[in-house]
């Protein structure tokens, strides 16, 4: 049986997660342990959606019509997922492949801005895929993140928007 390890450092911004995660990864590397350090904001984060948009099939088709001049790089990077398409717009921006209007429009479909049921489903699927991948390798994963904090805040805010407030 493969024995993988997961170390998750969770907390709010500025609490020292990155410093501690780097320290732990350095210690593990010095001891010869195969280790992956994943920091908050990483565009290739295996268990989080950083600057990624999800559009339903019809939304994606309409988006490509509206932003035809940026269609090629968007189509090359888009990944069919859960009845829609994931578009890593942060990667497209970092590579300079897509114009600002299309990037701004994609940001409106950011995974963290989706309706709570869709958001929850996509994040759960991402974590499940990561767990399957990580459990198949004898490596140690060190994750610096505020995913639980961000998710809880997002879900709380969604709940507050649906409740009526006294005037």
For the structure shown, list the relevant keywords.
single chain; 167 residues; 7 helices; 49% helix; 16% strand; disordered C terminus
Describe the overall structure.
There is one protein chain. The chain is α/β, with parallel strands linked by helices and 167 residues long. It is built from seven helices and six strands; from the N terminus they run E-H-E-E-H-H-E-E-H-H-H-E-H. The strands form two sheets. A three-stranded parallel sheet has the order 1-6-2, sandwiched between helices. A three-stranded antiparallel sheet has the order 3-5-4. It is elongated, with a radius of gyration of 18 Å. The termini are far apart. 25% of the residues are buried. The C terminus is likely disordered.
Q: What is the helical fraction, as a range of percent?
A: 40-55%
Q: How many E strands? A: 6
Which range does the strand content fall in?
A: 15-25%
Q: What structural category do the secondary elements indicate?
A: alpha/beta
Number of helical segments with 4 or more residues: 7
> End-to-end span in angstroms?
59 Å
Radius of gyration: 18 Å
Order of helices and strands: EHEEHHEEHHHEH
How do the strands of the widest beta sheet line up side by side? 1-6-2
State the low-pLDDT regions, or none. 163-167
Main pleated sheet:
3 strands, parallel
Q: What shape does the CA trace take?
A: elongated
Calculate the mean pLDDT score and round it.
86
